[in-house]
Fold these 3 entries.
Entry 1:
Amino acid sequence: MTNQLLNVWDYEAAATELLDDGAHGYYAGGAGDEVTLRDNVEGFRRWVLRPRVLVDIADCSTRTTVLGQEIAMPLIVAPVAFQRVAHPDGEIGMATAARDAGTIMCLSTLATTSLVEVAATGAPRWFQLYVFQDEGITRDLVARAKDAGFTAIVLTVDTPTLGRRERDLRSGFTIPENIAIAELGTGGVTPHGALEMMSRSVTWRDAERLAGYSELPVLLKGVVTSEDAHLACEHGAAGVVVSNHGGRQLDGAAATIDSLPEVAAAIDGRIEVLVDGGIRRGADVVKALALGARAVLAGRAPLWGLVVGGEAGARRVLDLLHDEIRLALQLSGCASPADVTPAHVARR
């Protein structure tokens, strides 16, 4: 069956058939009327590529660097919680797939596999962090991530409270008792219950303190305005991820691809800019590069691969996206991600 799945959309359709309604709603759903969820995908259709011709692309490479680390393509695996609900391979399978694809795995605070177990895969790895009400938990998680060889902290900043995710409310989705949040030892929770442990009082001062005591580069995930982009530069961030939490927080917020130019212009090369949300094709990645991103993060796309085929399915989706990125670069007249410029894209 999997050899008939030719793209991310095919994997999403197959995953939908395999998941029960509660789990599918959790992974696929968004907040409110899901306007922002849909617009993250549709936003890429508002931008068109402007290919250049008669360019030598015989030796086209997809390789790039993010925070000084070389990766095989400008796509990183985004943090997705509770991956063992999707498939028994869980985060270990996803990390192994990322490793074999030559890219970075970003592990969620709400992972169902421990930091040490993911580190044992040898995958290049970042740790996504929520700030807990108990500061001791936050500091301990950062210390454990550092000890386990994670090379960056991705601080989620757009979740002072949980968005209204009505699919979860209708289904009553709960993490099974036998699947725990590995670093917290908590099982049988709802997504809302897990987020109740997080602080609603996180400020720029906290982000700056984290950048100090973690001794690791800190990226702020959830920056979508020029005002906050300037503040990120002023408060010690090594980078930002332009993100609206996959349309799962504030419904009615702009698509991330539309927010990206504003943020990139405000940062003006001072720190690195990444983007997530709506990535389904390699051409989407090239558009994001043209609009100012160093790389993209993709969460749902490899997650659908994990659902369908475990580690092998996740790797297959990453391979498909790698091949599509390479093709989009070649047909745009770019021999590498570094060759993509703002002139390669235009508003439709």
Entry 2:
Amino acid sequence: MMLQLIGINHKTAPVEVRERLAIPEARLPEAHQLLAQHPGIQEGLIISTCNRVELLTSAPGEAVDLRGFLHEYFHVNPIDFEPHLYEFREREAIRHLFRVASSLDSMVVGEPQILGQVKDAYTIARGVGSVQSNLDPLISRAFAVAKKVRTETAVGSSSVSIASVAVELAKKIFGSLRGKSVYLIGAGKMIELAARHLVSQGASSILVSNRTYDRAVEIAQKFQGTAIRFDDLYANVDRADIVISSTGAPHTIFRREHGEKFLARRKNKPMFFIDIAVPRDVDPELNDLEGIFVYDIDDLQQAVSAHLADRGKEAERAERIVDFEVEAYLQRQRTRDVVPMIVSLQDQFETIRQAEIDRVRGRLGKLSPEQEQALDILTQGIVKKILHMPISTLKSAARDPQSTTVSDLVRRMFKLDGADGKPPGSGSGSGDPS
């Protein structure tokens, strides 16, 4: 099985590039199905967040052209994205997945949201059948590694997330959030987390708008705020000093002309937009208007950098855990992969043993039950002794990263799994492997 991972993230691509490859949550089931149907791909997982879009796939044979899938699905020329793409295979793909799930590759190292996002992607992939027996053990192990990192290190000890950093930035801009009116647009986990931080910092008025009004009401009630119907969005935004938006819309919902109207209604009183959506909700041109300040997801990295130094040592411990778990997973896989070969070897020799007994039975004459049992025990013992060394060697080799050389040699020597180009059992008439 060939493991591959291709993607872009906040480290390799700016938001204007990432938003072109972002997949809305509603389209993820279809995207997973199309990925699994792409030529050469057996199973696939898609992780699409504000900071990354990644495809993890397994294939039965050689590497697959994942750039071809990007071209077909997003209708983009992969050459335009080549400087921003990274691709990992086998060991490095496993390591990257473990690091992502453990929040070691996040903009805010240790933030807890990414694990939930990976779990959501996994649930969707399982639901449509694009993740099955090949990727399932790997992804499940990634969740266990993430839990181990969070349990055994303090990498996620303080409450830091994109939402909390956004609120922290707003506080720095205004000096204090007390008495400020905040408009939350969207009702996802990030928005709810932002609301929690805003309330703790003294925001006096919270408005919530979402395409699903009942969800907006639910969030508003949690924080003693007011729900606004999405159709009334533009009529109410000017009431807010701070706007935090994360809708998942495929295009900007706030443009320059909207900003001009908001400022006119507010008599040029400043407004602060924090856009944590990918694709972006706020057109960067609003930043050109005097009195409007726009910060997108990439702008938050400056605020994030202060947290990274504090988590450096804990992140190093977490990286060591990930490296250990990668090797442990690979060793388990090698051991698991060699079991069918051992069973096949045993089956082949048992077939030869039975064939030889049947061949000489006529010359032995009628045997008593005791003699039949003795013959059976004798021949089984011979086969067991012959196979002892090859099986022991295979088991030992399974713990060695170079085990494929030994496995291939045994497979070819005993013509297992069709290594000779023929199905098992299609050798000489007597079944003699020599």
Entry 3:
Amino acid sequence: MGEVFGTPSVGRDDKATAVSPVTSDAATLRSIALKAGADDVGFVEIGRPELVGERPHIENAAAWTQTLMSFVVRMNREPIRSPARSVANLEFHHGTDDLNDIARSIVRELEKIGVRALNPAAGFPMEAQKFPDRLWVVSHKEVAVAAGLGQMGIHRNVIHPKFGNFILLGTILLDAKVDEQSAPIDYNPCLECKLCVAACPVGAIGPDGHFNFGSCYTHNYREFMGGFTDWVETVADSKNGQDYRHKVSDGETVSLWQSLSFGANYKAAYCMAVCPAGDDVIGPYLADKG
């Protein structure tokens, strides 16, 4: 079934005005997303119970939103597994750039078929003027889970049943109903192996599943937002260069310079690196054992 469009209305000047599509074909939309480079796609109607908390934020960004298209893009696994932060961060940065380019391409193709659409950023830049309150336009994780693209692991990353947690998430807001809704998967791909618990350098993930957001945020996002403002205050409070060097090591200063020059770097992600979940990730191992 192709796209079904509303009947054009006639204004007072008797000129026909196009109406947003009433219903769009999920297969067509999925094909557009996959052709643009997405690796999996799902659709969630904005009235779904799973999005109750997100709905005000979504409608603030685009009041006309009727459906959310969630999609995933695979990352290269071995760079994420590298203990060299430069290698892992290149993958994160370039992977996010690719995802945003894919989202932009999807929106362009949707516009061509008459579907109004908007693509919030996959990560940064965000609505920084709202700091320290919520900065992101839409919670990609919540939408992805509702769209059947995975479930949350105990490390608080979405785990795709095939690709594991080596994915990045994107969301497109659509001014259209979609004829086929996605449903959350009925199991959690998380193996509860607790490797992420052992790998976390600051103990943010508890063996009982408890997650200390503050510990993760303070360490992993050291050169983002709060950590950066802390550094600025340290500079401002220092009496001179020697006093500053007593407070901040040369390595930390250069690391901050690198983040300002090339993009803020994540200090961890070891929880992702060790995660064995996902058919593509653990499949070869199981095949050998079989």
